[in-house]
Amino acid sequence: KTVTLTAVRNDGGTERAIANAQGMCFAKGGPPFFSSTDSNGVAVVKVPDNYKGRCGVMPGGGFGGGGKPGEGGEKPPAGGTIGLIKNAQEFVLQTLIGTAEAAEVKILAAQAGDAGDANQLFPIDGFKELSAGGSGTFRFGKPDSEFTVKTVDSGGSLITNGGFVDISSASGFRMGCPTAGGVGTCRGFKGKEMKAQIHFPPNVDYAGKTATFTPTGVAGQVVSITVVPKDVVITGEVQDGSNNNAVIKDASLQIMVGGFSKEGDFSMGAYNPAAGTYTMKVAADTDYHLGVTAGDPSQGIKQGGYVPNISSDSVSGASGKTITRNLRLSKVDAT
What we know:
9% of the residues lie in helices and 41% in strands. The protein is mainly beta.
């Protein structure tokens, strides 16, 4: 059986086929199936007789795949802040929004970093649910509307901390722009509803809420994103799950603690090695999953060897509250 995927672009005023684009179909728990579009923009993907799953097209390729690190495969977990963030991203993608949807997000987001023409195309249609014998058309275009984004507090006053505006379309594609002094210039699709959220550096005491808007294509459009203070304190011990939950008091481990919300906020905690405790500020009435890492697990027990841990359950609190939540690390005990 097959699934037929057609890729077209409508930038420039006319609809044209997209050749040499990567088509992909995948079902939950199963392997992906690939094919490339021909000169007519059509990809015929071979699938099992009973196939039913998600399908989409990505101009420019770049799906990645197996193999050794450096050859398209996955690299070992990183340590420190980068490792914590990467593990958190995987957790948020796979646990909170589902493995299949996570694959779509990573595939669509991969386009944004390439300057080639095909990789500047944004999907107007997202991945679609298709069955064996079915077909789908996937339209792409380039942003045609420019607007100003401002970060403001609940009273409308400008919040001048710099950050990055994450803009998502109905298709699931994510684009964005940086802000300086609380102001940034972004682009989107005229007449298409979009969502924008600001991401601040971890040490900024504000978290952004999501703003829904529609680019007008009219010069001077301003989109305001309301931000809220991080005034909930989370504190607790960092414990060693490999040693009867003993409190870890070791500055050499370079322990990092972070809080991650489904809305995309990342808060960095401060670890106190003298007491073996941490403190972190987060936004009120927002669910956060807490993560902790120490050393580099790829280096073995002598160099730290603790497995990064991100809690599957979330924590939240009302404005001004202090919450106690202990975090646990366990050492690498197998190879």
